[in-house]
C-alpha cells in the first residue's frame, strides 16, 4: 500500500517549487476553462462568432441567436460545468479514500444504481423521455451506494476500503445483471437505455439543472473540508488515529460526498465515462499528492474535459452529434495511456 | 509494486490447516459440479431422471435418452464446465500477476474488444455464428496486442498494464455504445444479448477444437504456479531464487489471454467469472494466494449454475452472462458479509 499516495503529505510545509507549480497550474486551468466555456457557447450546428454570443448574453441579441445561445447552449454548458466539477471531485475523493488509483466513483455502485432505477422506471411506467428520469436515477444512486456501504462495513464502524471496493463491484454486478435482463426482455427499455448509457449534455434545461445544484454545492463543500483529514489518512489508519483523526467519521463523510456528487451528476447527464477516473490522475501529476490541492483543481479540470468533449461531439460528424459520454472516453483514454507510459507507475 | 493490497496477508487460522482445508473445499466443489452437471443433463422439456442420466453417460441408456442427453445437452454442459474453468484460471493469472482483484478480462478491455469485433462483423460481414465467433476472437486478440504494446516499456509491469487496459477498455466500450445507437433496435438487441455471453448454439465440434488449442496454455498456467508464488515475495527475492520475473509475467499473461480468447470465441464475452471465481475460491479455502485449481472448479460451478438458472429458472430466456454477473455478484456479497460476521 505504499505507492498510491507517497508519504510526503500532511502538515509539513511543501516545497516552493510545488507551490509554484500549483499556482501556474491553477492559472492555466482557469484560462483553459474560460476558453472551453466560450467554445461551448460558440460552436455547434449553427456556429456563432463571439460578439454575437456576447450580444445575446447581455440581452441585445436577435430572437434567433437568443434561442440558440440562451435556450440551448447556456443550459448545456452549465450542465457540463456542474456535472464535470461533481464527477472530478467525486473521483479524487474516491481515489484518496480507497487508496486505489483505479477507483472510479462508479465503483461504489453509483452508475449501477442509477441505471437500475432508470431501467426499472421505464419498465414499470413506460416513460419515454430520459429527462423525466433524473430523480429516479438520483434516488437509485443514493440507495445503492448506501447498500454498498452497509455490505462493505463491519459491525465496528465504517468499512475498510478494499472490502468496500469489492462490495461495490459485487452489488454493481448484481444490479447490472438485472438491468441487462430488463433491457434484453423489453425493447422500449433497451432503446431508452442505450441512449442513456451514452451520457449526454443534450436537452438538460435549466429547470432540470437547478434542483440538482444544491446537492452538488453541499457535496463540493464537504469534499474541500476533507482535504486535510484525507492527507492524514494517507499515512495509514493507525498513524491517522494517533494524530487524533476521527477515521470513521472521515470515511462516512467521504462516502456521503462521493455519493451525492457522483449520483447527482450521473442523474443529470448519464454516465460520463472516465471523467472521475482520469482527471484526478492528471491533477495529481501536476500538483503532487496533497489532497487540499487535488480536490479543488479536479473541480476546475473536470469541466474542461466534459465541455471540450461535448464541443468535439457536436463537430465530429456534424450535423449529427456524438454524445459527450462517448467522446470523453476517446479524449480521456489516450491521455491516461500516455501519462501511464511516460511516468513511472510509482509516481501515482 | 505494492500499489493495491489484495489482502494476501490476512491469513486466518481456521479449524483446519490451510492445505487440508483447500483439499476439502476442492473436493466439495468438485462433487457439486458433478451433481449439478448430472441434474442439468436431465433438466428440460424432456426430463431424464438422474440415475438414467448416469446410465446413459455410461453407455447403457435407451436411444431417445442418448440423443437428448449426449447429443443435445452434453455439449452445453461440457461447455459451461470447461469455459467456466478456463475463464477462472485466466482471471487468477491476471489477478496474481497484477496483484489487483479488479484485474480481469472485463476490466482490462478484452471483453469489450471481443464485443467490438463481433459488432463490426455483424455490421460489415455477416451475423452467422462462425462469423461472429471469428470477429470476437479477432477483437479479443487485437485488443490484447494493443494493450500489450501500449503498456510495454522495457517489460510489462502490472500496474501500467491495468491503467492502459482501463483506457483501451473505456474507448472500446464507448465505441460499442455508439455502434449500438447507430444500428436498428432489433439488431442491437440481438447483438447485445450475444455480447453478454451466451451458451446458445455451442456445438461439440467447435468446443472440442477450441479446447484442444487452449489445453497447452492451461497446462502451462499450472506449470507457472511455483514461479508466480516466488514473484509474490517481490521481484528481487524471486530473481534471487532463479525466477525471471519478466518472463514469468509475460508467459502468465499470454496464457491468460489465450484462455479468455478461447472461451470468448465459443460463448462471447461472459462477464464476471474471471473476476469473481478466484476471489470466491480464495475466501472458501481461506488461502493467502489465489489457487488456480480451486479457482477453476469454482468457475466451472459458477458458469454451470448460472446456465441452469438462465435456461430453467427465469421466466424469460436470457444469455448466461447476464446471470453470471448477478449470481457471482450475489455470492460475493454473501461472502463479504459472512466474513465480517465471523470477525466481529
Note the quaternary state here. heterodimer
Order of helices and strands of chain A: HHHHHHHHHHHHHH
Let me know the largest β-sheet of chain B.
Answer: none
What integer is the average pLDDT of chain B?
Answer: 82
Which bin fits the share of residues in helices of chain B?
over 70%
Spans where pLDDT lies below 50 across 5 or more residues of chain B: 1-14
Instruction: Tell me, rounded to a whole number, the average pLDDT of chain A.
Output: 81
Query: Can you tell me the overall shape of chain A?
Result: globular
Query: How much helical structure, as a percent, in the residues of chain A?
Result: over 70%
**Number of helices, counting only DSSP H or I runs of 4 residues or more of chain A:** 14
The pair of chains with the biggest contact is: A-B, 61 and 64 residues
Distance between the termini of chain B: 31 Å
Distance between the termini of chain A: 12 Å
- Helical/strand content category of chain A: mainly alpha
- What is the succession of H and E elements of chain B? HHHHHHHHHHHHHHH
Task: List the main descriptive attributes of the protein structure presented here.
heterodimer; A: 348 residues; mainly alpha; globular; B: 344 residues; 15 helices; 76% helix; 0% strand
How would you portray this structure in words?
The complex is a heterodimer of chains A (348) and B (344). Chain A has 348 residues and is mostly helical. Chain A is built from 14 helices and no strands. The termini of chain A are close together. By secondary structure, chain B is mostly helical. Helices cover 76% and strands 0% of the residues of chain B. The N terminus of chain B is likely disordered. Chains A and B meet through helix 6, helix 7 and helix 14 of A and helix 7, helix 8, helix 13 and helix 15 of B.
Amino acid at each position: 500500500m505504499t505507492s498510491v499516495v507517497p508519504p510526503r503529505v500532511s502538515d509539513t510545509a511543501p516545497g516552493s517549487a510545488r507551490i509554484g507549480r500549483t499556482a501556474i497550474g491553477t492559472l492555466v486551468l482557469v484560462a483553459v476553462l474560460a476558453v472551453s466555456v466560450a467554445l461551448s457557447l460558440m460552436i455547434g450546428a449553427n456556429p456563432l462568432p463571439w460578439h454575437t454570443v456576447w450580444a445575446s448574453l447581455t440581452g441585445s441579441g436577435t430572437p434567433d441567436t437568443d434561442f440558440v445561445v440562451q435556450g440551448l447552449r447556456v443550459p448545456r454548458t452549465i450542465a457540463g460545468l456542474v456535472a464535470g466539477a461533481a464527477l472530478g471531485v467525486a473521483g479524487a475523493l474516491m481515489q484518496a479514500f480507497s487508496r486505489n488509483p483505479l477507483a472510479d466513483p462508479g465503483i461504489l455502485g453509483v452508475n449501477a444504481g442509477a441505471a437500475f432505477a432508470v431501467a426499472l422506471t421505464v419498465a414499470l411506467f413506460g416513460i419515454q423521455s430520459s429527462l423525466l428520469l433524473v430523480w429516479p436515477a438520483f434516488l437509485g444512486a443514493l440507495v445503492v451506494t448506501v447498500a454498498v456501504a452497509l455490505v462493505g462495513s463491519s459491525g465496528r464502524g465504517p468499512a475498510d476500503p478494499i472490502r468496500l471496493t469489492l462490495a461495490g463491484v459485487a452489488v454493481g454486478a448484481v444490479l447490472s445483471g438485472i438491468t441487462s435482463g430488463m433491457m434484453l426482455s423489453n425493447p422500449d427499455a433497451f432503446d431508452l437505455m442505450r441512449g442513456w448509457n451514452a451520457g449526454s449534455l443534450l436537452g438538460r434545461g435549466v429547470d432540470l439543472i437547478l434542483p440538482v445544484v444544491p446537492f452538488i454545492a453541499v457535496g463540493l463543500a464537504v469534499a474541500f473540508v476533507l482535504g486535510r483529514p484525507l492527507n492524514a489518512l494517507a499515512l495509514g489508519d493507525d498513524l491517522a488515529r494517533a494524530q487524533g483523526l476521527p477515521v470513521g467519521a472521515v470515511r462516512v463523510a467521504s462516502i456521503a460526498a462521493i455519493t451525492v456528487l457522483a449520483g447527482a451528476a450521473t442523474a443529470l447527464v448519464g454516465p460520463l465515462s472516465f471523467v472521475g477516473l482520469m482527471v484526478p490522475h492528471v491533477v495529481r501529476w501536476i500538483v503532487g499528492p496533497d489532497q487540499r490541492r487535488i480536490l479543488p483543481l479536479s473541480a476546475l479540470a473536470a469541466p474542461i474535459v466534459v465541455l471540450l468533449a461535448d464541443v468535439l461531439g457536436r463537430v465530429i460528424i456534424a450535423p449529427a452529434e456524438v454524445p459527450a459520454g462517448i467522446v470523453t472516453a476517446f479524449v480521456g483514454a489516450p491521455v491516461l495511456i500516455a501519462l501511464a507510459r511516460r511516468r513511472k507507475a510509482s509516481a501515482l | 509494486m505494492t500499489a493495491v493490497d489484495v489482502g494476501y496477508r490476512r491469513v486466518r487460522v481456521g479449524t483446519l490447516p490451510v492445505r487440508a482445508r483447500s483439499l476439502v473445499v476442492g473436493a466439495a466443489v468438485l462433487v457439486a459440479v458433478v451433481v449439478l452437471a448430472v441434474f442439468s443433463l436431465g433438466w428440460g422439456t424432456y426430463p431424464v431422471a438422474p440415475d438414467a442420466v448416469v446410465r446413459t453417460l455410461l453407455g447403457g441408456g435407451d436411444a431417445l435418452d442418448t440423443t437428448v442427453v449426449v447429443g443435445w445437452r452434453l455439449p452445453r454442459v461440457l461447455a459451461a464446465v470447461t469455459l467456466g474453468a478456463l475463464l477462472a484460471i485466466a482471471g487468477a493469472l491476471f489477478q496474481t500477476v497484477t496483484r489487483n482483484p479488479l484485474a480481469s478480462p472485463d476490466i482490462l478491455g478484452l471483453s469489450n474488444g471481443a464485443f467490438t469485433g463481433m459488432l463490426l462483423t455483424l455490421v460489415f460481414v455477416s451475423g452467422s455464428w462462425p462469423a461472429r465467433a471469428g470477429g470476437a476472437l479477432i477483437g479479443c486478440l487485437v485488443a490484447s496486442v494493443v494493450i500489450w504494446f501500449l503498456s510495454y516499456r522495457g517489460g510489462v509491469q502490472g500496474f501500467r498494464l491495468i491503467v492502459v487496459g482501463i483506457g483501451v477498455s473505456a474507448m472500446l466500450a464507448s465505441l460499442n455504445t455508439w455502434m449500438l445507437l447507430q444500428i436498428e433496435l432489433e439488431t442491437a438487441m440481438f447483438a447485445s444479448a450475444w455480447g453478454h455471453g451466451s451458451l446458445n448454439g455451442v456445438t461439440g465440434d467447435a468446443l472440442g477444437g477450441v479446447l484442444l488449442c487452449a489445453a497447452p496454455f492451461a497446462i502451462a498456467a499450472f506449470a507457472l504456479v511455483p514461479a508466480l508464488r516466488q514473484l509474490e515475495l517481490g521481484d528481487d527475492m524471486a530473481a534471487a531464487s532463479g525466477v525471471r520475473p519478466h518472463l514469468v509475467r509475460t508467459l502468465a499473461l499470454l496464457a491468460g489471454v489465450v484462455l479468455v480468447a478461447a472461451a470468448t470465441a465459443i460463448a462471447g464475452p461472459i462477464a464476471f467469472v474471471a473476476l469473481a471465481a478466484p476471489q470466491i475460491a480464495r475466501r472458501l479455502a481461506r488461502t493467502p494466494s489465489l489457487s488456480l485449481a480451486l479457482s477453476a472448479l469454482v468457475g466451472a460451478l459458477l458458469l454451470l449454475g448460472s446456465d441452469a438458472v438462465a435456461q430453467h429458472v427465469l421466466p424469460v430466456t436470457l444469455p448466461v452472462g447476464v446471470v453470471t454477473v448477478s449470481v457471482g455478484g450475489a455470492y460475493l456479497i454473501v461472502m463479504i458479509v459472512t466474513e465480517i460476521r465471523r470477525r466481529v
